[in-house]
Amino acid sequence: MQVPVKLANGELALRHYSICSNPLRGDIYEIAVLNEPNGTDGSTAVFQQYQLGLVLGCQLPENYF
User: Which of 8, 37, 41, 57 has the highest CB neighbour number within 10 Å of its CB?
Assistant: First the structure.
């Protein structure tokens, strides 16, 4: 799933994360994000700016496998 994140430089970027929610729950998507302190800003932004229950304007999921 493409998730919008605001990077440290103020830029709005899309990062790709895998959906890990129960496929029988069509009302929500859950993603897992590894906290990478030395990453490229995406995971850091998610951990600093996002909270459980936050509603995001994401792109529709795609299959990259």
Answer: 41
Tokens 């709005």 label which residue? 12
Which has the closest alpha carbon to 56: 18, 21, 28, 22? 28
Tokens of 57: 């304007």
| CA pair distance 51, 38, nearest whole angstrom | 21
CA distances from 26 to 20, 21, 23, 29, 35 (A): 12, 9, 7, 8, 26
pLDDT tens for 1-53 read 888 998 888 999 988 888 898 989 888 888 888 888 777 788 888 888 888 88
